[in-house]
Write a structure and sequence with these properties.
GO terms for molecular function: oxidoreductase activity. The protein is an alpha/beta fold and 328 residues long. It has ten helices and 21 strands. The chain has helices at residues 40-47, 131-134, 137-148, 165-176, 188-191, 208-215, 228-234, 258-262, 276-288, 306-315, and strands at residues 2-10, 13-20, 28-38, 51-53, 56-57, 68-69, 74-81, 93-96, 99-100, 108-109, 112-113, 115-118, 122-124, 157-161, 180-185, 199-202, 218-223, 238-246, 267-269, 297-302, 322-326. Strands 3, 7, 8, 12, 13, 20 and 21 form a seven-stranded mixed sheet that branches. Strands 16-15-14-17-18-19 form a six-stranded parallel sheet, sandwiched between helices. Strands 1, 2, 6 and 11 form a four-stranded antiparallel sheet that branches. The radius of gyration is 20 Å and the shape is globular. The mean pLDDT is 95.
Length: 328
């Protein structure tokens, strides 16, 4: 079966091209894709050959992770349902995670159309839902997961490190739970997209320790970008029984001295990946209107313009946040 996909063919090389995908089995759903959402952080690290798996950094001697079909999230219309699949009908709009592919470093990918996706990676969307609101659902679930992990009491001060999508959604989740939230970032365009009640702190213009002196004791720190230096600066300002949520990709530099957390009784959380219940909860949060997704879409490209999209991402980090590929 033939499909079209966004393929990382080599380090810093992106192509939109025809590929082979397996014929659908009895447990598969075939989806005609409308939109797929680029996960800039994760996909960039693959494109730079920094990792060869979800949490596996590249090391000298490893096989280069190419070619690979990038991504892991999309929305579309069901074209075909396998004989063993229940509860999904042809013509319904769904979210699909990974689709099966052939001849690649990994046997699955996100930016592929049509997508042959196992039924357990399919979610039906609410009636009348906008597809753009849900096409970044896995990544939104990562942010939700970060924000839901720590205990929160009303007024707790929380610091989110990173102004990317995971940081944005983690901050929104903490705000919804009653925290007083500040996001540390380096990009004016991204910080401007935060809700008014969340403080955006530009770390190239504001000395972090000076801000923390005025912010007060911190109950929650979420590192969405893998910045242990920032955490070490924040830690002296953390209160007893506080929480540290580490979600950024750290490669082989993510060492932490547990004994240095013990003095403040800091709880360490290490969220990773996605789960069915969290995906369901994230869909509910978007549907309820407190987790905002499509307002963070800053740019849209046709799928066949994927190489141009990646060039734009590399050259426009400040104003570039949510980037969506259109397949229709």
């Amino acid at each position: 079966m033939k499909a079209h996909a966004v393929v990382f063919t080599d380090k810093e090389q992106v192509e939109y091209r025809e590929i082979q995908v397996p014929e659908p089995g009895e447990n598969d759903v075939v989806v005609d894709v409308e939109y797929s959402w680029i996960s800039i952080g994760t996909e960039s690290s693959y494109l730079r050959a920094e990792r060869i798996g979800g949490e596996v950094p590249y090391k000298e001697g490893d096989r280069w992770p190419f070619p690979i079909v990038a991504g892991y999230q999309k929305v579309g219309i069901v074209r075909h349902v396998g004989s063993a699949v229940r509860g999904i009908e042809v013509g319904e709009r769904v979210f699909a995670a990974l689709g099966k592919v052939s001849g690649m470093f990994e046997p699955h990918g996100g930016h592929v159309n049509p997508s042959v996706t196992p039924a357990h990676q399919i979610w039906k969307l609410p009636e009348g839902a906008s597809p753009l609101d849900y096409c970044g659902l896995v990544l939104a679930q990562v942010g939700y997961n970060c924000g839901i992990r720590p205990a929160v009491e009303a007024g707790d001060r929380a610091v989110v490190v990173g102004d990317g999508l995971v940081g944005q959604w983690a901050a929104q989740t903490l705000l919804h739970r009653g925290a007083d939230v500040a996001v540390l970032g380096r990009h004016d365009g991204r910080l401007s997209l935060l809700p008014e009640s969340i403080r955006g702190i530009h770390t190239r213009r504001t000395e972090l320790a000076a801000f923390l002196e005025t912010f007060g004791k911190v109950a929650i720190v979420i590192d969405s970008v893998g910045d242990m230096a920032a955490f070490r600066t924040i830690q002296p300002f953390m209160q007893r029984d506080s929480h540290f949520v580490s979600a950024g990709f750290l490669g082989d530099t993510g060492t932490i001295d547990i004994q240095k957390l013990r003095g403040q009784e800091i709880t360490l959380h290490t969220p990773s990946g996605w789960s069915g219940p969290r995906m369901d909860a994230t869909i509910a949060a978007i549907s309820e209107g407190w987790l905002h997704t499509s307002p963070l879409i800053t740019h849209r490209f046709r799928a066949e313009e994927a190489a141009e999209a990646w060039s734009f991402i590399r050259d426009n980090k400040s104003g570039c946040l949510g980037v969506v590929l259109e397949w229709r």
